[in-house]
Amino acid sequence: MTEQIQINRQTIYLTIENVTLDTESGIAEQENQFVGFFKYEPVTEISFGEQVKDANGENVVFHSIEQARNQISDMLKRIIYPPSFLNPMDYTADNLAEIMQKELTFNIGDFNSDEIQESITGTMTNCTLASASNPPNMPYSVRIMTNNGERRLRISDIISITR
Questions:
Q1: How deeply is 127 buried, as exposed, middle or buried, from its count of CB atoms within 10 A (0-12, 13-18, 19+)?
Q2: Rounded-to-integer distance, Cα 2 and Cα 144, Å
Q3: Predicted model pTM
Q4: What is the span of the domain harbouring residue 56?
Q5: Are both 72 and 6 inside the same structural domain?
Q6: Is the domain of 44 the same as that of 94?
Q7: For the chain, how many structural domains are there in total?
């Protein structure tokens, strides 16, 4: 089963297949065992794409199609970068996954200025949303883990984000 999904504004082709085994009587599908593949272009009969693996490089086996779809989507949100980055003030709770847990460069400066005063390279590990007095679901402050430790910034201090 292959489906086209959107992850961080990128089109991804997700294929979930039953695990198969070669037996004396032919190929047998395993019940409740599935593997997943993803690809940036339509799949072919020859290639389903890259097989989903764990941190040790081992193939991941799922127990249902729904579990495979959900876990693969969550994994892809963490590793796939968007095609471009929005103005930091345009991010909301709905699209923060595009920039969370990814190595990025955050250009810092004064609000309403294009002048970059500092660039920080790191991974955004936490984002606090604005309270009810500000627009709801808007990022307010972020934590960025760098090689030199953690930095806390207001989202309004970030002029732009690059890869």
A1: middle
A2: 36
A3: 0.75
A4: 2-79
A5: yes
A6: no
A7: 2
Residue at token pair 């020859």: 46
In 3D space, the residue among 32, 132, 48, 161 whose CA is nearest the CA of residue 144 turns out to be 161
Q: Give me the pLDDT at residue 112, please.
A: 79
Q: Are 106 and 115 in contact (CB under 8 A)?
A: no
Write out the two tokens for 161.
């984000």
Read off the amino acid at residue 68: A
Q: Is residue 48 located within the same domain as residue 69? A: yes
Residues 6+ apart with CB under 8 A from 95: 86
At residue 13, what is the residue type? Answer: Y
Shared domain for 7 and 39, answered yes or no, is yes
And the tokens for 40? 């940036």
Write the CATH number for 138. 2.30.30.100
Longest dimension (CA), the chain: 70
pLDDT tens, position by position, 83-100: 999 988 888 888 888 999
Query: Would you give the DSSP letter of residue 81?
Result: P
